[in-house]
Design a protein that fits this description.
alpha/beta, Arc Repressor Mutant, subunit A, globular, binds iron/sulfur cluster
């Protein structure tokens, strides 16, 4: 799945300039004598992330509302435009070292070797990468084979995100996925056997007709296979999807909230027993295996997004998003026209997103940070958090409010009640 979907969560307090996810600003740390300051600046150079949106897929999955097209004839022109955008916007990244790069979509795993190689070359030529960047590529199980694994590795990709979604063939057919469960199992075995250290699987739960036992069996197979990271999402009905049509027009399927809640709680308990850390409400990993790229979104770090529909954030207050239309994007870049929109986030926006994002993380929400960063909104959050603490949906750990398993079921509601 496309991590850029976190756009609605992207946030960062502006009052103190750069904020690194801790209570103390990195910039404050380097207010030192000039020579030492220069050295520390080099050592502590602020990191940014890059996101590249590849807006093509083999098929349209039933539930998906990301931006993509199955019309591949525009691919050569789109890749040319994408490289132009990368070059044009490189000055925006000049203060930063690139700590993470993420190829999402869409299905970047379906790019030909020379196409991906050319994108990487453009980025390496025009951006300053950190010594050990995390470079992730999204792929579907049917994209994985010994040749692609070897090629991705040679190109410097060091993390794979595999769209498994389900290990039930009937469900996969209903989802219109381009692979079956055996292909998924074979792809994961190949990844493990080829020595990949970092990879993650996307899964969907709360699917009507998929029992609790089956959900646990899927998790059991995946954790038993040594998958170090999982992203698990409840099935949601997004507008303009085939699923939305099936439910609202044809009445073919009925969503089951109780099933979703039950399977979420089963998942939390099971993965905890297997030693996975629930470091974000939908993300689980073995110790030390968090996704750096996604974490940087949640920590409010700057990132540049390239390609149709990709979002960017300056790490302070400005968010921008590209046109979500392949031919329109190509034409605008070719004709030197504007192909994006942008907004300045207000203190209220920043506060709301801060609450929403931090509550989803295992570190929880620190009231003192709200007091420091958003003093005028402190009075809104405090009574709500205390109330949910009393009801057992939050606990206080190290002065931070952390969701309990039951609280995770109400995460959105708790955030919204704290909103300004
Ligand atoms: S592969 Fe399916 S879920 Fe992934 S972006 Fe394409 S349509 Fe969406």
């Amino acid at each position: 799945m496309n991590p850029i979907d976190v756009s609605k969560y992207r946030k960062v307090p502006a009052q103190k300039g750069f904020w690194d996810g801790s209570d103390e600003s990195l910039k404050n740390k380097i207010r030192i004598l000039p020579t030492r300051k220069l050295i520390l600046r080099l050592e502590l150079m602020e990191k940014a992330g890059l996101y590249v949106h590849i807006p093509f897929c083999k098929r349209k999955c039933t539930y998906c509302n990301f931006h993509f097209s199955t019309r591949l004839e525009t691919k050569p022109d789109l890749l040319t435009a994408l490289k132009q955008e990368m070059v044009q916007r490189s000055p925006e990244a000049s203060p930063y070292e690139i700590g993470t790069l993420y190829f999402g979509g869409g299905t970047p795993g379906m790019l030909q070797a020379e196409e991906l190689s050319s994108l990487m070359e453009t980025l390496r030529t025009h951006y300053r990468f950190a010594a050990d960047p995390e470079i992730t590529l999204e792929a579907n199980p049917d994209d994985v084979n010994p040749e692609s694994l070897e090629f991705w590795h040679r190109l410097g990709i060091n993390r794979l995100s595999i769209g498994i979604q389900s290990l039930n063939d009937e469900v996969l057919r209903w989802m219109n996925r381009p692979h079956n469960a055996d292909q998924s199992r074979a792809a994961l075995r190949m990844i493990v056997d080829s020595g990949w250290h970092d990879f993650t699987c996307d899964l969907i739960y709360g699917i009507p007709g998929c029992s609790d036992e089956e959900w646990l069996a899927q998790l059991s197979w995946l954790t038993g296979s040594g998958v170090p990271h999982l992203s698990c999402y409840a099935l949601t009905v997004e507008p303009h999807t085939a699923l939305h049509h099936q439910i609202h027009r044809k009445g073919k399927m009925v969503m089951d909230d109780d099933l979703q809640a039950r399977q979420m709680l089963l998942m939390l308990g099971f993965l905890q027993k297997q030693g996975y850390e629930a470091y974000e409400i939908s993300n689980f990993c073995l110790p030390g295996r968090r996704s750096m790229h996604n974490s940087s979104y949640w920590e409010g770090r700057p990132y540049l997004g390239f390609g149709p529909s990709a979002h960017s954030f300056d790490g302070r207050q400005k968010r921008r998003w590209n046109l979500a239309h392949n031919p329109g994007y190509i034409k605008a870049i070719r004709d030197n026209e504007i192909y994006w929109e942008e907004e300045q986030l207000s203190p209220r926006d920043l506060y709301n997103e801060y609450v929403m994002l931090q509550l989803r993380r295992s570190e929880g929400l620190d009231l003192r940070s709200i007091q420091n960063l958003f003093p005028s909104f402190y009075h809104l959050a405090e009574p709500i958090l205390m109330q949910y603490c009393a009801s057992g949906h939050l606990v206080v750990q190290d002065n931070r409010f952390v969701l309990t398993p039951q609280g995770k079921l109400l995460c959105d509601r708790i955030s919204m009640e704290c909103f300004a």
